[in-house]
Structure formats: structure tokens, C-alpha cells
Write a structure and sequence with these properties.
Layout: H1 8-33, H2 39-46, H3 50-56, H4 60-76, H5 79-85, H6 89-108, H7 117-144, H8 153-160, H9 170-187
Helix pairs in contact: 1-2, 1-4, 4-6, 4-7, 5-6, 6-7, 7-8
């Protein structure tokens, strides 16, 4: 008869995985409040010791990139959920891009970490799922009639990138919404052939 108890190794791996998620979630919350928050605060919020944090994320940049990747992965998985929550595909599109821009604005406040080779790898890896999520939103807008068919989702991401440049305050939100309205007026037209 074999022993059915979980191995110590399996239990340790599960605990390590839980700690990693807790650290990333804590970093997400705290970086949103203050990009320069001490990592000791992240460890405290996650309920782990500093040694555990540094075993998972040896440098601040490692943690920033993991939090960014986690945010983007979570957001790209929500396109269908955001569409289901709204009666208008256009409203879902706007909400989704405003959330994306919020994540990116926070990360822009984190300095040079997003310009390293490791960051470029993370950003490249997130491009395909982000483009797929935008394609889903675009298709819904085309079906609804608020956007013409034929627009490339990658082009739309580039076009919407103004959102992560507006100020992170009420005036910036208002400016972003005005600009989105302008973008949609253009997207109602079929793209010109290249």
C-alpha cells in the first residue's frame, strides 16, 4: 500500500506558489499607491518575510515586471467578461482600455525597469494576448455598428496609446474620454487601403 499523504516537497511547492501570488498581488496594490514603496512594505502586505520576497524576486525590477505581467494577463482574460457586463460594446471597449491605460500609467511611474531587456521580453510576450483581447472588443463593436470592419487590432492599440499619456487625475480622465470619442469617430469609417 502506498502512502497517500502529500509529500513535503509538494507542500513546499504549493506554499511557494501561494507566496509568489500573494507578493505579486501586494505589489500590484502598493505600486498603484506609490511606485517607490519599500519592498519591505510589499513583503509585510503579502504576509511573508523579506527573505521569501527576495527568493522569488531578487531585484525590485523582477517584482515590477512580474506585477506588470500579472496585471496584463489578468486584463487580457477579461475582455469577454467586460463585454458581458455592458449593454454596449463601445462602453466595454472604453472601460477595457481605461483599465489598461491605468496599469501602464502606474508602471511608467516605475522608472527604467520597463526599458530593460527583461522588460522588453515581458512586453513582447504580452503582445499576442493583448491583441487577441482587443480583436474580441473590436469584433463586438463592428457587430454593434459603432466601428467599421477592417481595422487592425494592433493599429488600434497603437492609436489608443495616448491614454497612458494623459494625467492620472480627473482632468486626465476627462481628456481621455474626449480623445476616445474622437478616435471612435474615426473608427466608424472603414480603413483606407495601404
Amino acid at each position: 500500500m502506498t502512502d497517500q499523504r502529500p509529500s513535503t516537497y509538494g507542500t513546499q511547492r504549493e506554499a511557494a506558489a501561494r507566496n509568489r501570488v500573494a507578493i505579486i498581488e501586494a505589489a500590484h496594490e502598493l505600486f498603484a499607491q506609490n511606485p517607490l514603496v519599500p519592498l519591505s512594505e510589499v513583503a509585510k502586505r503579502a504576509g511573508v518575510g523579506a527573505g521569501t520576497l527576495y527568493r522569488h524576486f531578487p531585484t525590485r525590477e523582477d517584482l515590477i515586471l512580474a506585477a506588470y505581467q500579472h496585471d496584463i494577463e489578468r486584463l487580457t482574460a477579461t475582455a469577454g467578461e467586460v463585454l458581458a457586463r455592458h449593454s454596449s460594446a463601445k462602453a466595454a471597449f472604453v472601460e477595457w482600455f481605461e483599465t489598461l491605460s491605468g496599469y501602464i500609467r502606474i508602471k511608467h511611474g516605475l522608472g527604467d525597469a520597463l526599458h530593460s531587456a527583461a522588460a522588453q521580453h515581458v512586453i513582447s510576450a504580452s503582445w499576442a494576448p493583448t491583441t487577441a483581447a482587443v480583436a474580441k472588443l473590436v469584433d463586438a463593436c463592428v457587430t454593434e455598428g459603432t466601428m467599421s470592419a477592417g481595422h487592425d487590432p494592433a493599429d488600434i492599440i497603437m492609436l489608443m496609446s495616448f491614454l497612458w499619456r494623459v494625467a492620472n487625475n480627473d482632468e486626465g480622465v476627462a481628456q481621455g474620454r474626449r480623445l476616445i470619442a474622437t478616435v471612435f469617430r474615426g473608427l466608424e469609417q472603414a480603413p483606407r487601403p495601404s
